[in-house]
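#dry-run=false #mode=assembly
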Amino acid sequence: MGNLLEIFTASILNHNIALTYILGMCPLIAISTNIKNARGMGLAVIFVVTLTAIINYPIYLLLQATDATEISLLIFIITIAATVQFLETFLEKFIPSLYNAFGIYLPLITVNCVVLAVSLFFVNRDYNFVETVSFSFGSAVGWFVAIVLLAAIREKIERQSNIPKGLAGKAITFIILGILSLAFIGFTGLASI
Amino acid sequence: MKLIRLTYTKWYNILRNGLSQENPIAIAVLGICSALAVSNKVENALAMGFGVTFVIMASSLTVSAIRRFIPQRVRMITYMVIISTFVILVQQFLQAYFPSIAAALGAYVGLIITNCIVMGRSEAFAVKNPVKYSLLDGFANGLGYTYVLVVVAVIRELLAFGTLLNIQVLPTSFETWTSMAMAPGGFFILGILIWIIRELTHNYEMQEG
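#status=ok
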């Protein structure tokens, strides 16, 4: 139990998937211009990452049993694309309120590296099933925290500061990310993976 | 005379777009994940750059060749299958011939699949253009990606380890910057690099909102 909690905390804070492993940058930068969109995208990521990790785990065991781990990349990405497609149709049909909250971000998630990365990391780290769930949920929450923090800072900067023309937009976003990343690395030693 | 005419050909334009005007990293800001994660050493950056260039070229070629047979509705998953096939090739190749680099890159080789540049070139270019132009476009974008990656890696390796391609360059008395080897260094260097490129090319971003 303590181990699970440690994995969970570490993957939110000092092993934050966005700020220390630098994953999921394209949507992180593209969608963090305001908090509302950032929250929608973050929620969608939490949902999809946890779900696909749970699905991919038994699939990986199956691949291992049949000695076909070379093609795990291909299988993982197909699982992810299919899950996202299914989720989109399902939510639109049966849970429209949830669909309205983050449905429009779902198609973008297939190309979010966080989803695939979580599946690849649990393979590399030899996690068991419960650890995988804890790790994938924690990583997704960590990504959510990162995008909301970044969006909050960008909204304030947009309104209140006078940035040089060339630095505005993407460049200043990277500098903010760098500072955020330094702050999260400050948690090193709190928990380890 | 020949040089002047060259500037008007489609070949030249595609190359120029990929390398500078629409440089995937500096201007379009795509494929950042792998760019920052592996650019703390020049050799990793080179391996990643070549891997990505190969995958973009091969998948652009394939997508372009079969573009008339891909149904509109399932085109994304078709690209995914094509791209991941080539990524597996790169992964197996690195593991077989350069095991130390493969170990250093770890999961990031597999993540070439979700590198937005590859998908982006298939969707924006290869699916509408003939094979020869798609191949060139893939090459130009791959090269544009590689050279920005190498520039970032040179700065980071120099400051973080005092070395270049693992050869000691700075005097050993130089106090190395550990944070340069980690994520923040990548963010700062790329942010500053984008700033410099935009100021030099006067390619500013539109004010949003």
